[in-house]
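Our working data are protein records whose layout never changes between entries. An example says more than a description, so a record of this kind follows.
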Amino acid sequence: MEIKQFRYGADNLGYLVYEGSAAIAIDGGATDAIIEFLNQNDLSLTHVLNTHTHPDHTVGNAPLARQTGAKHLDIQTLIKKGGIELAGHPIHVYHTPGHSADSIVFHFDHILVSGDTLFIGKVGRCFTGDPEGFLKSIKQLMALSPETVIYPGHDYVEEYMDTAKTVEPDNPHIDTFRKTYDPGHVVSTLADEFRINPTLRFNEPAVIETLKARGLPHATEYDRWASVLSLV
């Protein structure tokens, strides 16, 4: 399966996943660009999907469905089904509450469309008010292959690299990653995130030292996770 990233608004990122002549849209706010790509590549849009239901991610649902005849499949149905097939190939859906109660991610081949659950350099804001539940969601993603390619819901790379440096000022991987940043193709790998993302590095000695220096709780894994969230 192939994936195409589309930028819309100030920093939103949406996606087409396609195989053969069939495609699905995930957070398809870049409606005009998506339809143009479909037409240029003789693709038929079968479904319109979302990583969660915040309005900036659902804005393209109605126009895409109206203009292409694609079916909108709601998140609860995707969670119950555990995914969706595209041209006979499975796309797995994992429920990852934390940023929102209905947050999900899409996982296929070596690719993770992570929405606002996992950005490059940070996790999403915990709007559920349940950081313990969010940690369970993040640990589920941390268990994936390090080669997994992360396609996030927003481009916050520059801001979050600055934030990561405030937690680990001596981490050389942050500056190295920043040099590879391409606003035309905003991706990382899970291996990258283990090197640069403080919200995945909460068990690393350098991060724990920062927590100690700032007088933040660090005795348990949850303490460290919650303390890092408070810093970023």
